[in-house]
């Protein structure tokens, strides 16, 4: 009987410890509550030259009226951003621009006017504006800028978006890059995650400084890194680029304390170049980026030229900066899984119904387009075939394939089902062409009719037949026309010039190769 009692006692002890750990883990998650079980309301603290938004989970400090994020307090960490940097060099928007024929310039889009757009316990939205006029000359980009920041009750992060505008008659300009930049504590955030199969411990900034520069400035051979296991590898921020369609969440993990910092982009509608456009994500710094427009991998062919005094306005975002945490007893990489879950929540909530700008339409002020895409190729089949899993999208009216060079308008893309049926929802009001390409089929498709989208409109296009370009039957073929080079042989890099992340990685090996040599 004593043995039975002792055994039961051991089991009871283990059970008590199990429930204690579960409770401790739950308490350490990102959603904290007040004593009555409800999440804390949002508060705005106004100070001279700074504004602080606080919802009990995250506290975000912004410079005023400039509108830079100077501090993010979370889970007992006073500031997850790099405090050794100047306050203006922690979390900010910037553009790369130039007047035609002039040198490239940078503009941090500093606000000159601050306003509280909304303030209650459920949500705070702040606006930091700057206006341009001809008296500014070449000192700043000829843009009107309205940077917005939103904090919501129970939300473990902050939403960011901006309205950029050019008025009629303004001077010509090129705008090659628009982005958001966050620079995190480099003593804390060492593990970077871009996707399920691209995650690694990253070098320190000083490792790049002390390394050997290679063929171009971004590529550095790590000769004596802080972490000896990284010795002999090449670090290059372009190794971590990603196509727009796959770039939904990326970021950084700190192991002590176990905290994640994530950039979530719930929609591609405001990004340049369509779903295949590649761009930067995160890189050594530790730096996390949200890229809206850039000439990376395209050069000036991506249409970033603003000419002839035409007016233009575009809303970039919202994107979501998300922070999460776990207990010290859990595997820090589970923060990545939680970030993916949060990303799915944000994607399924798009378009958001809480931004206060009239320039960001909610779902009921948008339209829908549906139809079926078929392929008519008599050399393959006497009857039209399903355009199985075709990519179908709406973009600004233009020539065949022009969506790949469009940076000024909005784009809306989906992937059709096996039978070629597609449904594009939540389209902004405007005028569009419908474009498509079909994996395994040569060429670009464009539906010649201009599609006019009004709020609440539902355009049913029926069956559309794409006839790919041909001069006769296929005699032989190298590769698969699917917009990748995945099936081509890519040789291994030199053992002394490699990133171990890509060893035995067939999925990204070809991509890594072309990043380096294109």
TrEMBL record:
Keywords: Lyase, Signal
Signal sequence residues: 1-27
GO function terms (MF aspect): carbohydrate binding; lyase activity
GO terms, biological process: carbohydrate metabolic process
Cross-referenced InterPro entries: Carb-bd-like_fold, Gal_mutarotase_sf_dom, GH-type_carb-bd, Polysacch_Lyase_4, RG-lyase_II, Rhamnogal_lyase
Pfam families on file: fn3_3, Rhamnogal_lyase
Domain Rhamnogalacturonan lyase: 389-460
Name of this chain's protein: Rhamnogalacturonate lyase B isoform X2
């Amino acid at each position: 009987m004593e043995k039975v009692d002792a055994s039961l006692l051991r089991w009871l002890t283990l059970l008590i410890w199990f429930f204690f750990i579960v409770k401790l883990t739950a308490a350490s998650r990102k959603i904290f509550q007040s004593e009555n079980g409800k999440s804390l309301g949002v508060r705005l603290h106004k100070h001279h030259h700074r504004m602080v938004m606080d919802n009990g989970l995250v506290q975000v400090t912004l410079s005023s009226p400039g509108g830079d994020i100077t501090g993010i307090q979370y889970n007992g960490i006073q500031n997850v951003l790099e405090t050794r940097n100047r306050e203006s060099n922690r979390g900010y928007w910037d553009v790369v621009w130039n007047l035609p024929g002039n040198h490239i310039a940078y503009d941090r889009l500093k606000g000159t006017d601050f306003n509280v757009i909304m303030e209650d316990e459920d949500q705070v939205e702040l606006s930091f504006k700057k206006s341009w006029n001809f008296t500014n000359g070449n000192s700043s980009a000829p843009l009107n800028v309205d940077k917005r920041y939103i904090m919501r009750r129970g939300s473990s992060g902050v939403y960011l978006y901006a309205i950029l505008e050019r008025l009629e008659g303004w001077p010509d300009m090129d705008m090659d890059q628009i982005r958001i930049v966050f620079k995190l504590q480099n003593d804390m955030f060492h593990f970077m995650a871009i996707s399920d199969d691209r995650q690694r411990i990253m070098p320190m900034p000083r490792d790049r400084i002390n390394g050997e520069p290679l063929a171009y400035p971004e590529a550095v051979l790590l000769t004596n890194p802080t972490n000896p296991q990284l010795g002999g590898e090449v670090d290059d921020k372009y190794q971590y680029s990603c196509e727009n369609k796959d770039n939904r969440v990326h970021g950084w993990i700190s192991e002590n304390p176990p905290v994640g910092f994530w950039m979530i982009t719930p929609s591609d509608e405001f990004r340049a170049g369509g779903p295949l456009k590649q761009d930067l994500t995160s890189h050594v710094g530790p730096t996390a980026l949200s890229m809206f427009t850039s000439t990376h991998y395209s050069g000036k062919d991506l249409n970033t030229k603003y000419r002839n005094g035409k007016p233009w306005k575009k809303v970039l975002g919202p994107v979501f900066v998300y922070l999460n945490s776990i207990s010290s007893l859990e595997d820090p990489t589970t923060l990545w899984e939680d970030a993916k879950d949060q990303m799915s929540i944000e994607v399924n909530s798009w378009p958001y119904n809480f931004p206060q700008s009239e320039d960001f339409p909610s779902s009921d002020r948008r339209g829908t387009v549906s139809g079926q895409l078929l392929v008519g190729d008599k050399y393959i089949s006497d009857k039209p075939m399903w355009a199985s899993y075709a990519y179908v999208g709406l973009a600004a009216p233009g020539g065949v394939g022009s969506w790949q060079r469009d940076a000024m308008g909005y784009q809306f893309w989906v992937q059709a089902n096996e039978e070629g049926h597609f449904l594009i929802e939540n389209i902004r009001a405007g005028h569009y062409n419908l474009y498509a390409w079909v994996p395994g089929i040569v060429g670009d498709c464009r539906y010649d009719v201009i599609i006019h989208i009004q709020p609440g409109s539902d355009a049913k296009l029926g069956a559309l037949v794409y006839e790919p370009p041909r001069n006769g039957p296929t005699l032989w073929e190298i590769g698969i026309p699917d917009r990748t080079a995945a099936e081509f042989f890519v040789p291994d890099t030199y053992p002394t010039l490699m990133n171990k992340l890509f060893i035995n990685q067939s999925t990204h090996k070809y991509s890594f190769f072309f990043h380096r040599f294109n």
